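Human: I wish I could look at a protein chain and see how it folds. This is the protein in question:
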Amino acid sequence: MMKKVLVLALAVLMTACGQDETVKNNQAEYLDAQKNQVMPSGELTPSETIKALDQKLANVGKITKSEQIKFSTVAYEYELPDEMKQACNFDPKTPKDDEGFYKEGFCTSINIKLAKVEPRWIEQIVNKTITNDDNPKLLKFKQNVDEFVGEHLMFINEMKDVAKENGEPFESAPSYAWTVAPELIPAHKNLAQVAIAGDVYMGGAHGMPFMEYLMFDMDLQTQIDFSDVIVADRASDFHELAYAGFKEYLKDELQITTKKDIQEYEQTWQFEMTENVYFGKNGVVLVYQPYEMGGFAQGFVEIVVPYDKLQGIIREEYLPKQTAKTANQESVSQESVSQKAEQASQADKS
């Protein structure tokens, strides 16, 4: 039974986060696969989106201004099956937003929020990420939710059978909960950014929280990946900076500083690149799910690469103004120094 439970929890997480569906055997296999996943040469490959960027920017007059985003959320409406209501002591008088509703009746908690966004194209992408379903009626997504509730119902009935066999009264069962909520986080220049937070709990010691970030270029009117903003041929340089940030994380959060201790840590949690990224106040932030780069108790591992180290690595249009300006000034300064040196050399020869 527990194996089925773990498999379903993994399927739910994959639906919510868009994880690779080829890894579905059980939770342990998934975590091992994530831990041992190797990224070719540690580099991010630019997508087709940005290959056309320079051409589009050349026609900048045709690009519409960034739209004003209106963002809110709406609850995904789901009615528990009658069989579950009977099994979990469902009380229709208790408001669904009451904390005691699920605790007292141990009913399955489906607390999923969808995005309501203008412009609509962002809404469609965010909600497709949450549901993995582009049908307006979300029929496939409802099947996934039904399956989640069905597994909980099966678990409750099994516990009732065990209590009956032992001649004991059945009082309660662990609750199940599936929670998702999108949020519009601070924009970065022309990028709108959305965070999707969630958790899947299936009666264990803890749930499986997840966090996914989406970026939208409002000038290009399209979703982009982080690999799109890296200058061509500089992905390996960014990888080096990210790895340095990883070692900073080990030092600051876990007091791991020696080369030996770092190597021991990486025997279990080897550093790898991620596309789960957002532009923060002080730099680019790489976010890793629990178990990807550390134990569950470490929570979400965040690695920050400061903007002042990204000159020439991140496309200038995505760098903060001051950083981009400094990069240009340094470039002009270097050219000026070279010119003066060349002039001095010619003067000496004459």
Q: What stands out?
A: Strands lie at 70-75, 109-118, 176-188, 191-202, 208-217, 222-224, 277-279, 283-288, 301-306. DSSP finds eleven helices and nine strands in the chain.
